[in-house]
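Justification of resources, computational component.

The compute hours requested in this renewal are based largely on the per-chain cost of generating structure records like the one below. Each record pairs the submitted sequence with a full structure-token output. That output is archived, and it is also reused by downstream analysis tasks.
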Amino acid sequence: MALPHELSGVEFKGPGLLSDRGLVAQVVRAVLGMANRRDGGSVIIGVRDNAGALTPAGLDDNELRTWTYDAVADQIARYADPGVSFELEIKEHDGNQYVVLEVAEFSDIPVLCKRSYDNVLRDGACYVRTRRKPETTEIPKQTEMRDLLDLAIEKGVRQFLERAERVGLSVPQTLIPVATDQELFDEQIGDLG
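The structure output for this chain reads:
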């Protein structure tokens, strides 16, 4: 059974060995795009794209053995600046095994590609997941650039406020983030349990 399509926070890549440089470049590109996305996302390895139809294939034992955390981290580190935080899990579905990379959003500044590979990766490029359809690409429009800059600014402001408090500067209460209604509700519900 074919999967309908990718999602904004989920990208699929075909099966193969980690030694397949073309596949690795595609996976790295997807990882860079997820790292530059609010809340990060998942890259699932072992799903074929046949003319737009996604088909779960899984990885055979030989392929699966090559996708270790350390080996994948080494490949990503060759292309990502700054580094990317991720978790690697092996998941089974309908008798097939898949590698799932759970990629965290960047911690301080957006992640850039620091090395080119064929026509897949470009040195200096900033990859994102687009709004118009779920794909990883270089920043295509001002809306994606603004989303990325807004996320970076939010992180910078939070870090500034934390540093100011650590060094003893008083931060005006108007600058301290106020809990949302949902956060207050969750806190009250938690106190009941």
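The chain has two domains: 10-139, 147-192. The first strand starts at residue 10 and ends at 13.
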